[in-house]
Amino acid sequence: MSTVADLLKRPEVKETVLKTVQLDGQVVLKIMQHCDGALPAIVTGQLLGLDVGQTMEVTDCFPFPSPEDEGDSSTNYQLDMMRCLREVNVDNNTVGWYQSSVLGQYQTQEMIETFISYHDSIRKCVCIVYDPQRQQRGQVGLRAIRLKDSFIELFKEHKLTGKELREAGVGWRDVFIEVPVKIHNSSLAQALIADLNPAPGATAGDLDRLSLANAGYLSKTMGNLIECMDDMLAEQGKVSMYHRNVARQQQQLATWLQKRKQENIARRAAGEEPLPEEDPALFKPIPEPSALDQYLVTNQIASYCDMLGGAAEKGMAKMYLVQALQKATQQ
Questions:
Q1: Which residues on adjacent β-strands are paired with residue 22?
Q2: Per-residue pLDDT reduced to its tens digit, 19-54
Q3: What's the DSSP call for residue 173?
Q4: CA angle in degrees (0–180, nearest 5) for 302-303-306
Q5: Distance between CA atoms of 26 and 184, rounded to whole angstroms?
């Protein structure tokens, strides 16, 4: 027979997995305008919306003040903006933030710490990363980023050594998760777009996408990739130094233990009390360095490789197109 406590007990609500981030058209335009206007500086802003099942609906956003404009009067800027939006019946639920990036550079420890600060109150927090340079090259410059739940738990427990991450089955690909982005427009906006006459022929934007001048983009990306490789070598040097120190300590411990055993043999022969053969204060365990920086650098290297591969693929396609056009004009 059910008791009153069983009847009043709330059923456990199973947390759904976020599969899609839906951005309103005005949100995309606001993000692009803010990030493009602040180049080459990195800017951020707040995302507002609703968590609807497996979809995070982002319906509005507003920019954060730049570091030069921050002061005592802007301490409560975020709360003031959300209060003003609430007064005009606009969604004021925080669902994450957006930020700009330069050539795909966003995988930093500061981003992870920001995710952790949001995670306690917003379980499905997302970050929209916008790359203006990538957008100018005709590629999609928007991407939605999240942290994997298993990595968040390890980060909170400060279990970031290589051994602890391997035991948990968390690799460098398991730090950030990219969520598919869907652009949504209201029915009035869709009706307006359908009513507008299409532009005759090719536009200036279409011609810009056919540009073959990508040497500057490739050289900058290669330069950043080389810097990441140097960082990776530095991280590997830290790991090698740790293993050398551990091996040196073990050798010193073996030498000390052998000496102590010989000393105890002499003390027993003299009828004296033997000394302990374990001294925890003498040889303390060397802490293993964190593997987080190595994971982040590896993620950044993979991102640069994908960017170079995509640029090379599009460049080859354009060259074949130009070659076909030249042959057609010569005939």
A1: 57, 182
A2: 899 998 888 889 988 888 887 788 888 898 888 888
A3: G
A4: 85
A5: 9
pLDDT tens digits along 90-134: 777 888 899 988 877 888 888 888 888 888 888 888 999 998 877
Six-digit token string for 263: 């000393």
The residue among 2, 299, 321 whose CA lies nearest residue 129 is 299
Q: Check: CB of residue 58 under 8 Å from CB of residue 47.
A: yes
The kind and range of the H/E element at 257 are: helix 215-269
* 13 contact partners, CB below 8 Å, separation of at least 6: none
What residues does each domain of the chain span?
A: 16-68+77-189, 228-330
Both tokens assigned to 208: 């810009």
Residue 142, CB half-sphere, CA atoms under 13 Å: how many? 21
- Write the CA distances from 20 to 25, 178, 299, integer angstroms: 15, 10, 22
Strands, E, within 65-221: which ranges? 94-100, 126-130, 142-147, 176-179, 181-184
Q: Which CATH number fits domain 16-68+77-189: 1.10.3210.10, 3.40.190.10, 3.40.140.10, 3.40.250.10?
A: 3.40.140.10
In the beta sheet, which residues pair with residue 206?
none
Total residue length of the chain:
331
Give Cα separations from 142 to 90, 131, 310 (angstroms): 24, 7, 16
Q: How many helices (H) and strands (E) does the chain have?
A: 11, 8
How many angstroms separate the Cα of 73 from the Cα of each of 47, 69, 117, 165, 296?
Answer: 22, 10, 23, 43, 36
Amino acid at position 59, single letter: T
pTM, two decimals, is 0.75
Task: Pick the closest to residue 291 from 155, 150, 113 (CA basis).
Answer: 155
